[in-house]
Amino acid sequence: MSLVVREMAIDEVDLIVDYFHGSTPEHLDLLGVDRQRLPAPEHWRAWYTTEYERPVEERSTVLVIWEQGGAPVGFSTADKISFGAEAYMHLHVTDPDKRRSGIGTRCVRDTVDFYFRRLALKRLFCSPNAFNLAPNRTLQAAGFKYLKTHMTVPGPINYHQAVTEWVLER
């Protein structure tokens, strides 16, 4: 089945909002996400709409959807963007039946190419929860280099946690 990796349209952001708001406490913990820090769905959608009204060079986020057979199987987001230099990516396989199938590595490779082109990057970072083995293995398989493991609060929806920092440079 064909895999499509493309920029997410603004009317598709419910994939992200529903993924986080619909996840079990156990899954959110694996991601290092604090449910209390999730924006209300309507606020999250409004924020994405505002971001998408800006030129890509000025955005604080870019969203990518992963589709297989015309159905979404996951997504990636980029943030902490310094256009023309670097950004941080996040990756999520939303379809539980597709996890551990190798699809994540294929999606990440295509997503990396997209981010490097779209954001004119030199470096792309990713810092998943250190105890979440799937994204750490995926990043290694996709060619990212290990930098370090350290304690931090990686983003506004996260709690203080151990993360493994990876980088890909071009």
Characterization of the model:
There is one protein chain. The protein is an alpha+beta fold and 170 residues long. The chain has a single domain (3-169), classed as 3-Layer(aba) Sandwich (Aminopeptidase). Helices cover 31% and strands 32% of the residues. The protein is built from five helices and seven strands; from the N terminus they run E-H-H-H-E-E-E-H-E-H-E-E. It has helices spanning 14-22, 25-31, 41-52, 103-118, 133-141, and strands at 3-7, 61-68, 71-82, 86-93, 123-126, 145-152, 161-169. Strands 1-2-3-4-5-7-6 form a seven-stranded mixed beta sheet, sandwiched between helices. Strand 6 and strand 7 form a beta hairpin. The chain is globular and about 35 Å long. The protein starts with a strand and ends with a strand.
Q: How are the SSEs placed, and which strands pair?
A:
Elements lengths: L2 E5 L6 H9 L2 H7 L9 H12 L8 E8 L2 E12 L3 E8 L9 H16 L4 E4 L6 H9 L3 E8 L8 E9 L1
Parallel strand pairs: 4-5
Antiparallel strand pairs: 1-2, 2-3, 3-4, 5-7, 6-7
